Amino acid sequence: MLYGQPHLACHECDALLTRVALPPGKKLVCPRCNCTLRKPARDPVNRGMALSLTSLTLMVPAFTMPIMTFNMLGLDTVDTMIKGVLHLFQAGFWWMALLVLFCSILAPTLESALVLSICLLVRARRYGGLLILLLKLQARVRRWAMLEVYMLGILVAYVKMIDSGQVHMGVGMICFSGMMLATTLNTMLFDTHSIWEQVGRYRGGIHEVRPR
Ligand SMILES: [Zn+2]
Question: What is the model's pTM?
């Protein structure tokens, strides 16, 4: 199999098409089923860096500042994300605590750090083995970052608790929402395909793949 082969197959209708160089701002559309085959991002590296830095900056207050304050009979309970994980550990739900820790804290942090590192390497034109390793790692980690599930959990808890006392959203919640938005946009828009193309051009465009 050759990386620089002149044909590609449509993922919807399997039409075999001739690969063409895409001018900036254009997208590749299948002439048979009209589905978009490729739409290169205009500035994947700078946008990836901006979203990763936003996400990483907001993570510190999002994880350590109060997500919500619950007041019942004059008694205030303040909860942060880190405290939530510790409560789960202390209650004996260690497997759930590990899952929340990994999917809501570690995976999103690692994903943003990986995207930032990839962008920095591309800007420095370092297309070696480290960049390839980080690209593969980012593809695996992004499947585990599930901030939206955690956000859903917070909203469900908010709705359930609102009848029992006074609930106030904290600064951590605003930071968490911003971080979730930046991370989700980064996951959706980060154009790894164009970076793989740059790696391919740098490495001569041809990769032999050994049959298994
Ligand atoms: Zn098609």
Answer: 0.74
